[in-house]
Structure formats: structure tokens, C-alpha cells
């Protein structure tokens, strides 16, 4: 049936769009938001764009999220939960070996996924306005820093990470490597050069923080 004259037809959950269970619709909204954040930044991920990308009305969005800020927070949480799933995926007993596994898989899982992870994550990190979204991003980043610090402390207790280097310094160097690798792919630098540079940077870091007997380079 045609829309009445003078009205604007938009598919919604009550007219023309397949109704999804609440959890599925929320996940769909989150993924659409991440794609929009990657392309337009946080400021450009408007309610109208999100609704259009999902194929529902603006009003239907509010059935799943209380506000635009809540949608953005949900999208950022999806990225962070993906990171924590990766961080906890290694079952290697020695921390230094877990770090080696992380070094070998980071680019494939995160850096190369420009639209789904890399670009939106940097948009969230660089979000300047002091609002609920910014506060949430900072809080989740502190959670990640604390997780890494706990990992390094575990490695020190095991004896496969040097105890004479400050934990915060090691965590900072790990993040410097992660951001360098992410930015290199984000900027479209030569893949082979990026891979060599990243492997060299990571191997040097592991060699510096490892006791002599654990300092074999990543293969």
C-alpha cells in the first residue's frame, strides 16, 4: 500500500521490516553503528543514519537504546569485549608465550579489520567532548591497562618476565606497538613493510623484558 500523500515512508519494525528478537536487533544496531563511526566518526553517526542503516524508524531505535549515547557506548563495548575475548584466548601456561601468541595474531584479528574494528576504535579513542561516551571509553581503556598489568605481574611471578622493569613501562610499550601496527594498516602503508616493522618491534620488546633464557625471537 502506498504511503498517504505528504508523508514520508520509512520501514520500521511495525511496517515492512522483519521483526527480530530484541537481542538480535540490538546487535544489528551496534554493528551498523560501528560501520557508520568508521566512515563518519562519532559525530556523524546520527540517529537518522543508524536507523536508515538498520532499516527501522528513529522511534524504533528507542525501543532498544535509551539514547544515542547509549548506542555509541554499546558499540564501543562490542569492540572492547572483542579485545578481552582475544586477550583471554591463549591457554599457554607461560605469560611470555601468551604474549608471543598475541603478537602473532593481533594484526590478523584487529589491525586488518579496518571497518569492523580498527577505524571505529580510533574514532572512539580520539573523541574529545567530555560526555558520557568519553567517560565510558576512558573507563574501559583503564580496564584493559589493568588487565595487561596483571598479566605482566603474573609473568614476573613465573620468572619469565624481568622483575627489574616497571610493569607500567612494559604495558606502555605494548600499547605503543599495538597502536603502531593498527595505525600502519589504517593509513594503508605497505603490508610487507608493516609486517616486518611490527615483528621487529615486538621481538625487540620481548627480548628486552625476558630473562636471557626466554628471549628467543618470534617465528
Helix content: 55-70%
- The CATH class of the largest domain: Mainly Alpha
Helix count from the secondary structure assignment: 9
How many domains?
A: 2
CATH superfamily of the largest domain: Tetracycline Repressor, domain 2
Name the helix and strand elements from N-terminus to C-terminus, one letter apiece: HHHHHHHHH
Radius of gyration, taken over Cα atoms and rounded to an integer in Å:
21 Å
Question: Which class do the helix and strand fractions yield?
Answer: mainly alpha
State the total count of DSSP E strands. Answer: 0
General shape? elongated
- Low-confidence runs (pLDDT<50, min 5 residues)? 1-12, 214-219
CATH topology of the largest domain: Tetracycline Repressor, domain 2
Give the overall average pLDDT: 89
Main sheet attributes: strand count, strand direction, barrel closure:
none
Which range does the strand content fall in?
under 5%
Under the CATH scheme, the architecture of the largest domain is: Orthogonal Bundle
As an assembly, this protein is single chain
Separation of termini?
A: 63 Å
Q: How would you sum up this structure, described in words?
A:
The chain is mainly alpha-helical. It has two domains: 12-65, Arc Repressor Mutant, subunit A (Orthogonal Bundle); 69-214, Tetracycline Repressor, domain 2, CATH 1.10.357.10. Helix content is 68%, strand content 0%.
